[in-house]
Amino acid sequence: MSVRNLPPVYNKIAQHAVFPEMNHDERARYNFLANLNKHLAHVSTGNKVAFENRVEPKFEKEHGRKIASTEELKEAISKDSHYQMWSSLRRSTMEMRQQAGRSIVLRQAEALRDKVKALNKGRDSLVLDESVEVPAYLLACDNHIMPGSYHTELIEDDVTPAANYDTGLFVTTAGLLGRYSDGGGKAIVSWVKKTYPDFNPKRILDIGCGMGHNVLPIAKAFPDAEVIGIDTGAPMLRYAHARAMDLGVTNVKFMQMDAAKTTFEDESFDWVQSTMFFHETGGKSIYKIMDEVYRVLKPGGLTLHIEQPQYTDDMSLFEKFIRDWDALYNNEPYWSKMHDIEPLDLMKASGFRAEDFMRIGAKAENDLDDGSEKANEPEDHGRSPIWNVFGAIKN
User: Fold this and answer.
1) Alpha carbon distance 10, 32 (integer Å)
2) How far is CA 71 from CA 75, 191, 197, 328, in A?
3) What is the chain's Cα-based Rg?
4) Which of 135, 191, 195, 385 gives 20 to 30 Å between its CA and that of 306?
C-alpha cells in the first residue's frame, strides 16, 4: 500500500469536551486497526478472483450448472482459503475495534458521565422519557458487535455506548468521515443547498439521530430552524446533547422517542431526515416509520434518507453476496433487507407519489482528506460508495 493511500492518523480527530481521553497505546491501536481495515479493502478484491477462478468452476464441475443463489455461493466460497482468510481477518478487526473502544470508555465511565451531566444540566433541549421502550429488533442483537448496542446502561446516566461509537467511527471508515465523523450530514446539506437553494426549513426532524454527529451540520446550516433529533437510546441522547452544547450548536432538541410511533402533530416538519438508520430497523417497523415520516411531513416538505444501496437487476450474485457480509458476520441482520427492498415501493406504501420520488448520490465530505484519494471511496469489502440517498417531496 502506498503512503498516499494510508488513512489519516488518529490524533487528527477532533477532541470535543466529552470525547474520551486516550493514551499513546490506545491511539496506536486505533491507527493499526484503521490501517488494517484499509489493507483488507485491497485484500477483498481477491475474493472475486478466487470466485471466478476456483469457486465457480469447481461448483460447475460438481453440479453441472452455475451457482443459482447467494446461499449456494456462501456455502461454496466459505471453503476457499482466500475468502476464509479475508473474512476471518475482517471479523477480527471488528471484534478488536469493539474491545479497544470498550476498554477506553469503561475505565473512564464515571468521568465521562460527569462531564456530560455538567454540560446538560439545566437545559430543556434534552428530553428523556423512561416510558419509551427500546424496539424488539434492537434488543435482539448487538449492532455491529457493539456490546449492549446503543441502549444498554452499565451505570446510572451512562454514556459509554455513545462514547465508544464516537471513538470507533474513525477505525471502521479509515477516517473517511472527517474530524467530527459528520461527513454524512455535511454531504446532505451540500446537496440540499445546491439543489434547492431557496429551501428554508423552519422545522427539521432527524430520526435515529444516535450521538448527533450527522444532525449537527444540518442544524448549523439552518441556524434559524428548530431541529429535533430522536432516538430510543438514552445513552446516545445524553452524549449527543452534551456534544452539541460543547460545539456551540444550540438549535437542536434531543428527544427519546420511537420513530415508529412519534408524538408529533400531523404535517409539522418541513424536512425529515435519516442517516444510515433504516438498515438497522427490523420487521415491519421500517414501514411504520415511513408512515410516520409521511404523517409528520408538511405538504411540499422534503424527506431524505442516506442508506445502504439496493440490489439491481444487473448485479451479479457475487456482488450481492459480498455486499451482505456484514449481515452474516457483523451483527447487522437487517442489512440484507435494506439491500433487497425497493425504496420507491416503501415510500409509495406510505402515501408518497412515484413522480415525487428521488434517488441520488451524495459525496461524503471529509475535512481530513488531503486530496490524495477520493473522499467517497468505498470503505472496503466490495461495498458501494458510502452515501446513497432516496427521498421525496410530499405533494
Assistant:
1) 10
2) 6, 38, 46, 11
3) 21
4) 135
What is the crossing angle of helices 56-63 and 70-77, to 10°? 110
Q: 320-334: per-residue pLDDT in tens?
A: 999 999 999 999 999
**Coarse DSSP helix, strand, coil percentages of the chain, rounded to the nearest 5 percent:** 50, 10, 40
Strand order, beta sheet including 388-393: 126-127, 252-256, 226-231, 203-207, 269-275, 297-307, 388-393, 357-361
Please state, as a whole number, how many other Cβ atoms lie within 10 Å of the Cβ of residue 38.
Answer: 20
344 in Cβ contact with 392 (< 8 Å): no
Residue 101's beta-bridge partner residues? none
Q: Which of 229, 199, 392, 187 is nearest to 303 (CA)?
A: 392
Please enumerate in sequence order all residues whose Cβ is within 8 A of that of 395, keeping only pairs 6 or more positions apart, or say none: 299, 300, 353, 356
Task: Kindly state the helix (H) or strand (E) to which residue 203 belongs, with its residue range.
Answer: strand 203-207
Count CB-CB contacts under 10 A for residue 132: 17
Q: What angle do CA 213, 201, 354 make, to 5 degrees?
A: 95
Closest to 388 measured CA to CA, from 358, 346, 353 = 358
Give the pLDDT confidence of 99-156 residue by residue, as tens digits: 999 999 999 999 999 999 999 999 999 999 999 999 999 999 999 999 999 999 999 9
Cα–Cα distances in angstroms (integers) from residue 331 to residues 91, 249, 391, in the given order: 10, 33, 27
Contact 104, 20 (CB under 8 A): yes
CA atoms within 13 A on the CB side of 160: 23
Classify 273 as helix, strand or coil.
Answer: strand
Helix or strand (DSSP H, E) at 269? strand 269-275
Long-range contacts from 120-124, C-beta under 8 angstroms, 24+ separation:
120/238, 120/241, 120/242, 120/245, 123/241, 123/245
Angle at 383 between CA 235 and CA 317, to 5 degrees: 125
| CA–CA gap between residue 294 and residue 288 (Å, rounded) | 10
Residue 203: what residue type? Answer: R
